[in-house]
Design goal:
Elements (H helix, E strand, L loop, with lengths): L7 E3 L4 E4 L1 H6 L5 E7 L4 E7 L7 E5 L7 E4 L1 H6 L8 E3 L3 E2 L5 E4 L3 E3 L10 H4 L2
Antiparallel strand pairs: 1-2, 1-7, 2-6, 3-4, 3-5, 4-9, 5-6, 7-10, 8-9
């Protein structure tokens, strides 16, 4: 079901977007610590308390929206992580230590879900 789906994206502005399920799996933290395994090209995200250094604040996406965002430009620049467009991680998962694992080798282009306009023919079908 859509509510149970674990969904994480990273856009070209280096902003992670987490759906409600991922946020809950992380324990609804106020901040996260980001890690990167260069060899495996895997990003790790672990919950943390907000501190002046080493953490990234978790923000609401928009008012009334259950998604959360993490602005991670300094992290992405430090590890030369670049996205040409918004990409969704194929199999994000939380390991036994509570670390969210995001494999950069397994991403797909993310598409915004927009309502499509119905033509007159579709109304009469």
């Amino acid at each position: 079901p859509f509510k149970e789906r674990v969904h994480v994206t990273l856009n070209r502005k280096n902003v992670f977007c987490l759906n409600k399920k991922v946020f809950e799996l992380l324990g609804e933290p106020e901040a996260v610590v980001l890690m990167f395994d260069k060899k495996e090209k895997v990003i790790g995200m672990t919950p943390a308390r907000l501190s002046p250094t080493g953490t990234f604040r978790v923000h609401p996406h928009t008012s009334g929206n259950t998604h959360k965002i993490i602005r991670a430009a300094p992290f992405c620049r430090a590890f030369n992580i670049r996205m040409d467009s918004t990409s969704a991680f194929v199999h994000p998962r939380v390991d036994d230590d509570g670390v969210l694992l995001l494999d950069l080798k397994a991403t797909v282009p993310a598409r915004a879900r927009r309502a499509r306009k119905l033509t007159g023919r579709e109304w009469t079908a």
